[in-house]
Amino acid sequence: MKMNRNALPFIFLMIFIGAELYAQQPDGKKPNIVFILADDLGYFDLSCYGNPYNNTPNIDRLATDGLLFKQAYVASPVCSPSRAAILTAKHPARLHLTNFLVGNKVDSASRVLPAKWRPYLPGTEITLAEHLKALGYRTGMVGKWHLGYTDSTNAVAQGFDYDRVIGKNGLDYYNYGITSKNRIVFEDTGTYYLTDRLTDYGVEFIKGSKAEPFFLFLSYSAPHVFIVPRGDKLRKYFLAYNKHDGKYNPYYAAMLESLDDGVGRILETLATLGLEENTLVVFTSDNGGVGLPELGPMPTNMEPLRAWKGHVYEGGIRIPLLIKWPGHIRSGGVTENYITGTDYLPTFMEILGKPIPYRIDGMSFLGTLYHPEVSFNRGPVFWHYPHFSNQEGRPAGALRLGDYKLIENYETGELSLYNLKDDISEEHDLGKRLPEKRDELLALFTAWKKETDANMPIPNPNFKEK
Questions:
Q1: Domain segments of the chain: what residues?
Q2: Residue 379, exposed/middle/buried by CB under 10 A (0-12, 13-18, 19+)?
């Protein structure tokens, strides 16, 4: 059948109008928001991202029923700055919170010493929890907070009504404390697995909030080191170990299974209480996976991405992101649009029709949720890590604009330019071949560092040239 060309614009218009009508709340109810954050989960660690060894069926359901992002980023390659960016929509450089709370590594032989930084999220910053609380939401924080533990910087001070935060010895999955308002409310000495305990609190919060809109920030400590799984999860991964040439870690896979079980329980709770249809669920990670042995054997690998946690290469900053919102996000979607950690808050606020009235660094990607196939002009995304990481990361910064990414080594001033569309492994430096593009991005990056008053490494007065 021949089609009248004059009708094409009308047809496309109706398609987009239909999609937007599909996305609207039919009864005007505010959606619940469940934000699940894994700790040090690598880009390829989930089955739905192509991992043939790890078993994550519940997390994979979020991809089947929602939207999978192939180019999602964190705002920092380490945890505390990344979390601060999620909750404030401000870049860690602007907050001067550029390292994890107890980060203090120094390389005395380097040209530079690490930058001075703020080891907490200031109470003057307005968090996502505070925005949602002002709109009538009940807010809950469960798990790893890592943004300050004084009375003015804890989770309750930052807008959460309910808090069950990992306190004492948060790296031990069988010997830990849970705090509320900085006070111990539960201690375990070897009987109950921490990941399961955090899921219990998440379920408790949801059940106690079903009569009102709620925001749950469920921040698991898994699969962060120590790599300690439940013993009953291990056997099948050892049986499959040799089939994959020893490439994967059975202990890590077993830890991920417990994390996946937790996500499954959260989804089941929402369904049982009749909340599933009106709940937006996000699952992501705070930074890239661990690529070197740290407090035990190496847990995972980031191939084909370069490097890992603590680095501004893709392995340290590109992470899995899955979002499910029944009746609004179509099932089984995949998007190539890139977004970053500062973008969640403005997206949620646009859903609620409440624009942010002050300067933020984030940009809403609501259009991508509705139309994942349509190109989203995110503009430049920046990274700034003026420190030495536990994973051998060196002081550096980076900028992505379109397919091009510039990396600046803060020790030497060396610049590298990559085309991520053609070179996801960042193996081929194009700086000499494309000097105009390199200089264009450097000018943009330099201006951004000045505008944010980014804290820079300090020249080392004891440095000696070799």
A1: 30-376
A2: exposed
Integer Cα distance of 277 and 267 in angstroms: 11
Hey, what are 344's tokens?
């969640």
Q: What pLDDT score was predicted for residue 443?
A: 99
What are the counts of helices (DSSP H) followed by strands (DSSP E) for the chain? 12, 16
Tokens of 117: 């930084």
What pTM does this model have?
0.93
- Both structure tokens of 186: 């539960």
- H or E element at residue 88: helix 79-88
CA distance 42 to 286: 10
Query: Helices 250-272 and 57-65: crossing angle, nearest 10°?
Result: 50
DSSP 214: E
CA nearest to 205, candidates 27, 35, 29, 87: 35
Q: Cα-flanking dihedrals φ and ψ of residue 133, to 5°? A: -60, -40
The pLDDT tens digits for 15-37 are 343 444 334 455 678 999 999 99
The whole-number average pLDDT for the span 41-46 is 98
Distance CA 98, CA 251 (A): 31
Encode pLDDT of 282-313 as tens digits: 999 999 999 876 666 668 889 999 999 999 99
Class in CATH terms, 30-376: alpha beta
Burial 77-106 (b: 16+ CB within 10 A, else e): bbbbbbbbbbbbbbbbbbbbbbbbbebeee
